[in-house]
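Quick one:
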Amino acid sequence: MRLQSDLLAWYDIHAADLPWRENQDAYRVWLSEIMLQQTQVETVKPYFARFLETFPTVQALAAAPLADVLKRWEGLGYYSRARNLHQTAQIVSRDFDGSFPRTVDGLLALPGIGRYTAGAIASIAFGQAAPVLDGNVIRVFARLTDLESDVTQPNIKEELWKLAEKWLDRERPGDYNQALMELGRVICKPRNPLCAECPVQKHCEAFANHTQNQRPVKARKAAVPHYHVAAGMIWNDDGQLLIAQRPLEGLLGGLWEFPGGKQEADETLPECLNRELQEELGITVEVGELFCVVQHAFTHFKITLHAFTCRYAEGQPQAIGVRDWAWVLPEQLDQYSFGKADREVIRALEERKRMLF
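Output:
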């Protein structure tokens, strides 16, 4: 099909110089594909380099403590990816002698690897004739076919998977898949696509019909919920702060935080804080001044985090609703992995310290 040859000819000339393309080692391909989920290329580049420097092989990653993996991942978000990376590395090292499965089915059996990621690894690292379908490819296909249907619907997505299989270049599947994704990233952009520079423009039905800015069709998203969260910067008489580790499963699993939680409809923020501290750690505190306020957006909701300066009152901390807890000096906080909102609190604490001293 002429589409494939036109696309590959463009890719051979214009392929971006990306660190994970230096070789097609399965470990590097896998690591980059996991990092690139929900994350932009420019954001991933420095993380990829630092991660490889710390964990140069899948065996090195498998042998590392999870806390070290989370710390190296800190700031990249979607932390379940880091936990799955660690678990998969251990499986590959233990059960496959450090070599990744070469087939889509074998890769799908590993934690954190879905249909798209399995296809990307199999095609790029092993030359398997496996299709891919991510957001970029969906957008390209929706425009090439001038698709009027909602691409978020499961049956439509399945039809697009069939199209990806049908259009796959079986001689250079890895290059072709990367070319498709790169086309969506740099040319066939979500808004104002660069049609004049597109190597497959003559194959594009949306361009011919002047509907490229109307494709792909997606259902309107529901309103994003917003929550108020109270967190305690709890000091003891030794100048230490109390931090808590979230359970491994769930949002921000395994990360540390200033303890607290979501405000209920019938309570003030200080009341919320003491309730959460009782439920999670079995302690009470004297809630003092509001130290700082942080706005943060997760994938499906937003929060306003209210961090209060607190004084530890009574009760021996217990890991009731948390995985662990620790008293630490402010200068020791950088030894622990925190989510973005809590890192903003730490940044405010460091700024306050600089102003005082």
